[in-house]
Write a structure and sequence with these properties.
five-stranded mixed beta sheet; 12 helices; 5 strands; 64% helix; alpha+beta
Length: 376
C-alpha cells in the first residue's frame, strides 16, 4: 500500500509526502470554507460554491497524478513547488473574494501555505509568490470597492492589506534566509563528501600508481578468507617483482623508473577483473588477489600480465628501455592460512627470478617444465 501511494523512488516518495501534507492542509481549509458557507458568510449559491470547490480540487488531483506518475521529473523543480503554491493562492484569493466579511481571517491561511516553500524556494520565487498574493488581495479590495461597495469596509480592508504585506515581507526575508542556509549547508555537505573521498583514497591507495596500498589489501584479503571459508570457494594471490628495476633507476633515472611502475600498474588494472584487487607493496613489488579463481585461471592472467610488460615498447621514453616481471602464484585452499599463502607466493616469485627472471612460477617443484618458459 505504501509503495502504491508513494512509489519506490526515495526522492519521489519525499515529494509525494510533501504534496500530501499540502493536500491535507488544503482539505482543512476546504472544511473551514464549508463551515463559513453554512453560516451564510458567502454571497453565492450552493451550486456555484460546489463548482468552485470541485474545480480547485481537480487541479490538486492533477498535481497528485503528475507527481505519482513521474512526469514531474521533466521539470527543473520536480516538486512543482511554485505551481502548487500558485494554485493554492488562487484558491485562497477566490475564497477571500466570495466572503462577505472576515476576509482578513483567511489571510492567516496564506502564511501556512507559504511555509511549504521555505526549504525549496529561492528569493526570486518567494518574491514572485508574495507579490502575486499581495497584489491579488489588493485587486480584490479594489474590485469590491468599485463594484460592490456595500460588501466592504475600506479602511479595515486597507489596514488588513498593510498588515498582510508587512507579514509577507517578514516571511519573505525568513524564507530566503532559510533557503540560503540550506544552500550553504548543501555546499558544505558536498565539500565534506569530496574531502572524505580524497582522504579515503589517500588512506587506501598508493600515490604513484593509484593501486591499493598494503594495509587496505590485507583488509580485503582477510575478508576474502572469511568468504572463502563460508562458501568453500578458492582465491589466488600472486606476487609481482619487476626485474632489474634498480638497473632501470640507475641507468635511466628515477623519473623513468616511476613511469615504468605506473605502466605496470596500468597493465595490472587492465588484466584483472573489477572484483579483484591489485596493490603496490612497496618499491617495485606488487601483489594481486584474484577472487573465486583457481591456479589454472590465474596462470592465464599472470602470463598475460608478464607478456604485456615484456612486449611493451618504451622507446618513446628511452630507446633501449625494456622491462620484465617475475611472478609467483599461490592459492588459498592449498594452505588455508593467509600468511602461508602469501609466503608461498613470495617464495615462488623469488624462484622465478632464480630460474632466469621473466617467468611465472605456480608450483614448488624444481622442474622448470612445470612453470612458464623464459621469454627474454
Amino acid at each position: 500500500m505504501f509503495d502504491f501511494i508513494f512509489g519506490s523512488d526515495p526522492k519521489q516518495s519525499l515529494r509525494m509526502l510533501r504534496h500530501l501534507a499540502g493536500v491535507l492542509s488544503l482539505f482543512a481549509f476546504t472544511l473551514l470554507g464549508i463551515l463559513f458557507y453554512n453560516n451564510d458568510l458567502f454571497s453565492i449559491d450552493e451550486e456555484t460554491f460546489t463548482n468552485i470547490l470541485a474545480f480547485f480540487w481537480i487541479g490538486v488531483f492533477v498535481f497528485t497524478i503528475i507527481i505519482r506518475s513521474g512526469l514531474n521529473k521533466k521539470y527543473t523543480d520536480p516538486s512543482l513547488t511554485v505551481p502548487q503554491l500558485l494554485w493554492g493562492t488562487c484558491f485562497l484569493l477566490t475564497t477571500i473574494y466570495l466572503l462577505n466579511e472576515w476576509r482578513g481571517l483567511l489571510l492567516i491561511a496564506y502564511f501556512g501555505m507559504l511555509s511549504f516553500g521555505f526549504f525549496r524556494l529561492k528569493f526570486r520565487e518567494f518574491l514572485s509568490l508574495s507579490l502575486f498574493a499581495i497584489f491579488g488581495y489588493a485587486l480584490i479590495i479594489l474590485y469590491i470597492f468599485v463594484y460592490e461597495p456595500d460588501r466592504i469596509v475600506i479602511k479595515l480592508e486597507l489596514a488588513q492589506l498593510v498588515v498582510f504585506a508587512c507579514t509577507v515581507a517578514v516571511m519573505l526575508y525568513t524564507g530566503s534566509s532559510i533557503n540560503r542556509l540550506r544552500e550553504q549547508t548543501k555546499e558544505q555537505y558536498i565539500a565534506l563528501n569530496e574531502a572524505l573521498e580524497i582522504n579515503q583514497k589517500l588512506a587506501t591507495t598508493d600515490d604513484l600508481t593509484g593501486l591499493y596500498n598494503r594495509r587496505y589489501f590485507m583488509e580485503k584479503l582477510s575478508q576474502q578468507k572469511a568468504l572463502s571459508e563460508r562458501d568453500d570457494s578458492d582465491f589466488v594471490v600472486f606476487y609481482c617483482d619487476l626485474d632489474r628495476f634498480k638497473h632501470i633507476n640507475d641507468t635511466f633515472g628515477h623519473h623513468t623508473g616511476d613511469i615504468v611502475l605506473q605502466k605496470f600498474a596500468e597493465i595490472l588494472k587492465l588484466s584483472i577483473r573489477e572484483i579483484d584487487y591489485a596493490a603496490r607493496f612497496g618499491g617495485e613489488e606488487f601483489v594481486c588477489l584474484l577472487v573465486n579463481t583457481d591456479i589454472g585461471n590465474a596462470k592465464k592472467v599472470t602470463e598475460r600480465i608478464r607478456e604485456s610488460l615484456s612486449s611493451y615498447n618504451f622507446s618513446d621514453i628511452a630507446p633501449s628501455l625494456h622491462s620484465t616481471v617475475s611472478i609467483g602464484i599461490s592459492n588459498f585452499k592449498q594452505f588455508n592460512t593467509i600468511q602461508e599463502t602469501l609466503v608461498s607466493a613470495d617464495h615462488r616469485m623469488y624462484r622465478a627470478k632464480q630460474m632466469g627472471r621473466n617467468k611465472v612460477v605456480f608450483t614448488d617443484q624444481d622442474d622448470a617444465e612445470e612453470n612458464s618458459d623464459t621469454v627474454t
